[in-house]
Amino acid sequence: MAKERKKISQKELQKILKKHKEWLGSGGERGERAYLSGAYLSKANLSEADLRFAKLSFAKFIGTDFSFAKLIGTDLSFAKLIGTDLNGADLSNVNLSGADLNGAKLSGADLKEANLSGVDLKEAKLIGSYLRGTKLVRAHLIGTDLREADLREADLSGADLRNTDLRNVNLSGADLIGANLVGADLSGADLSNTDLSFAKLMKANFSGVELIWLDSRKVYLKDAKIYQADLDNNPNLRPFEDILKIVGDDDSFVESITL
């Protein structure tokens, strides 16, 4: 039988936050670090709260307001954050491994070097989020909105990005080895030095993307859309054999490719 989570009232929460603030300000000499692991805090108001380095693993925060909160270095591993408002929150170096963020709002959030390995971000909103160097190994990102996000040098190896909105995303230097990008929209994305070895890219949209990085021997691009894509100076693409493999049966794409 699963252990019942401890429900924390707003009054108790304010006391915990006050002690945590004192702990942060005194370098740990006074006050008390916030330990809320396994707690039930759904629908709580934690907007602009300072929870840096707090322990919140396995806690339940469904529908909680964390907008513009400071969560640097916080442990949120395996926490339930379904539908949570994390817009503008500072989540740099946070541990979100195994967390459930299904439907969460993270637009404008700072997730630099955060650990999101195995996280569930299906249909979450991360428009314009800062995710440089973030670990998203085997993360569930089906239908996630990542428009204009900064994912430079992020580790997305084995991630599930089916039907994800990646328009104008910066994926320069990112690791997408073995990632599933079937049906993803990558139009206008920066994929310079991105490793897409063994990735699934069927029916993905690469309109306007520079594809000089692409090695068609290691990825499968059948029926992908590459309208106005730039394949110039790519040594790993042969003009006819590989291009036909990329575009499938639609000859209309061939005319738009720069060779």
Explain this structure:
By secondary structure, the chain is mostly loops. The protein is built from 2 helices and 2 strands, in the order E-H-E-H. It has helices spanning 10-25, 241-247; strands at 6-7, 39-40. Strands 1-2 form a two-stranded parallel ribbon. It is elongated, with a radius of gyration of 21 Å. The termini are far apart. Mean pLDDT is 84; it is low at 228-235 and 237-259.
Amount of beta strand: under 5%
Contiguous helical run count: 2
* Sheet with the most strands, sense and barrel status: 2 strands, parallel
**Tell me, what's the shape?**
elongated
Mean pLDDT comes to: 84
Global structural class: little secondary structure
The value of Rg in angstroms is 21 Å
SSE order: EHEH
Helix content: under 10%
In brief, what are we looking at here?
This protein has 259 residues and is low in regular secondary structure.
How do the strands and helices of this protein lay out in sequence?
Layout: E1 6-7, H1 10-25, E2 39-40, H2 241-247
Parallel strand pairs: 1-2
List keywords for this structure.
single chain; 259 residues; little secondary structure; two-stranded parallel ribbon; 2 helices; disordered C terminus
